[in-house]
Design goal:
Helix content is 31%, strand content 21%. The chain has six helices and nine strands; from the N terminus they run βαββαββαββββααα. The chain starts with 6 loop residues before the first strand and ends with a helix. Bound molecules: iron/sulfur cluster. The site of iron/sulfur cluster has 12 residues, from loops.
Length: 209
């Protein structure tokens, strides 16, 4: 009897680097773990969605890691950090800070999928102002914007929440934002809706206190 095996959807990308790129060996590894007739979805958030057998999940993650592929859960979680291409250089544009931020937040459970974006200078190529949480590096420090929304007739740009933060202050601010959203957000409430209901100023008081 042909028993259909359960599959799990995974989000995959090559982590944070100079642009959203994949190498040939990463593509070959990907192809080894998906069925010939299955589809790969390319999202607007620099991730690929693939379906893998539940029984192979640990092995898949391990093999992907060996070739530099990162895996994230799909659903009501913080997505991996969308970034710009760091065209002016990794150090100048804060790539290590972006990598650390991604490590801290990507995959955290939240009431509704949350899209964070990072950009290495004020040209803002990583589109931080149309995402839920946007970070812009300005000289040696970081500004944080919240509440951007790219889709729908009520699309809007994010509002500056805090500015001139050190890397540690940035990490703490984003961690706290996610904690408050998780604690007070209603199930399936998008982050921009949560900000409207909770109040931008109340959120500032809660985070900065
Ligand atoms: S935001 Fe700045 S550093 Fe990043 S790709 Fe654009 S111009 Fe380059």
């Amino acid at each position: 009897m042909d028993v259909k095996q359960k599959t799990i959807k995974l989000a995959v990308n090559a982590g944070i680097g100079f642009g959203a790129k994949l190498t040939a060996s990463q593509l070959i590894t990907l192809a080894n773990y998906i069925k010939e007739d299955s589809e790969i979805e390319l999202t607007t958030f620099q991730q690929l969605y693939i379906e893998v057998l539940e029984s192979q999940i640990d092995c898949v993650k391990e093999e992907f890691k060996k070739v530099g592929l990162m895996t994230y859960p799909v659903g009501a979680y913080v997505k991996s950090l969308r970034t710009c291409g760091f065209c002016k250089g990794a150090e100048e544009e804060g790539m290590p800070v972006a990598i650390e931020l991604n490590k801290r937040i990507a995959g955290k459970e939240v009431p509704w999928p949350l899209r964070p974006a990072y950009t290495g200078c004020q040209n803002a190529c990583g589109e931080p102002l149309i995402n839920d949480i946007g970070v812009i590096k300005v000289k040696d420090n970081y500004d944080v914007y919240i509440g951007g929304k790219a889709m729908g007739e009520n699309a809007r740009t994010a509002t500056k929440f805090r500015e001139n933060l050190s890397p540690e202050e940035l990490f703490e601010t984003v961690d706290r934002l996610l904690d408050v959203y998780k604690a007070h957000g209603k199930r399936r409430e998008a982050f921009w809706k949560f900000i409207n209901r909770f109040g931008f100023e109340n959120l500032q008081k809660e985070i900065i206190a």
